[in-house]
Amino acid sequence: MKYTTLNSNLFIRNRELLSKKLDDNSIAIFNSNDVMPTNSDGTMPFKQNSDLFWLTSVDQEESVFVMIKHNDLIKELLFLKETNEHIAIWEGAKLTKEKANLNSGIQKVYWLSEMEKIIHNEIAGLEKIYLNKNMHSRSTSEVQTRDDRFRESIITQFPNKEIKEVAPIMHELRFIKSDLEVALIQHACDITDRGLRRILPLIKPGIMEYEIEAELMHEFLSNRSAGFAYQPIIGSGIDSCVLHYIDNNKKCLDGDILLMDFGAEYANYASDLTRTVPVNGKFSSRQSNVYNAVLRVMKEATNMLRPGTDHKKMQQEVIKLMQEELIKLKLFDKHDVKNQDPKNPLYKKYFMHGTSHSLGLDVHDVGDTSTPMKSGMVFTCEPGIYIQEEGLGIRLENDILVTDGNPHDLMKNIPIELNEIEDLMRG
Known about the structure:
By secondary structure, the protein is of the alpha+beta class. It is built from 13 helices and 17 strands.
């Protein structure tokens, strides 16, 4: 890992929260993610299971965390891949028991080879088994995970035990961020700020989209980030209207707009920023008008991110604001709106996505957005207008902490006003 060692109190607190949610006489088991293959003997970069990391700080493969609640007493067990000299030479040293104990606060740390016997003995005297799986509302993967394979094994071995899902509990707990988590997200946002300030003076007609991506990666890695929190979108011209454009392989041309959606990761926590800039450093009149329309909607939407706000109702209010702006931009008029097909409203041609999503260990973080917002939740705010016939797509996005007072913009120091962008691009 590139980040500095995290405060173990974060993970101790997280486990305390989980322990209060589990039924008595139960066991909860969390597996690390798999190391995914490429071709030959290659593997993809390892990405830890977010739930396991949130509970333990462990950021390596072949790790398992177990929590047992019996007669209202809590037992915590951590199982790790056993390190040795051979592994140290070929892969680098892995966590020792001592280091894992120090980083996580978990007292009982074992090698993975000991797990089957220990777990079998513990389960025998318990009634319920909590198992984990990806229950994110946007998940579409059909890959069988380590958790999936473990589930099949447990059900086969213990057919008489009650199987319960731990994912809904984790979603609820992870939805609200602690002060330590907010500090980590803020740090990721600050690194993202440095990245934007690095690239703005470099953007000129003729620069390649991938050159911008490379400069961002340089800045991120130089600041202890593992890199991008998600695949960056660096889309110029007509591709500024492609919501998830990731090719990033075109030349940026004079007169084009450039939409950049990127964010640094720090200690597995994500940031998520979008800025749209003129390739030549000066917004045209039309680009300015569309930009300021999006900015006005963004400011109003940000102010809605407060305790008690209903996510769906917020989106409806944003749509009303956006519709007014689209009329001002003469993309349609009030008469058109009055006669539009309710099943295919006019605004959807120019604004076809949601305004915000939860942010945390995952860029689209877990949490039930059907519940009212609460203090401690972190959301993006990202309205956009996409005019394909003009090759003009503009989206703006900041990360917002819901508080008991006014919404706290974690990216408030990152330039966003039109004149700020132009000034920085001049160098």
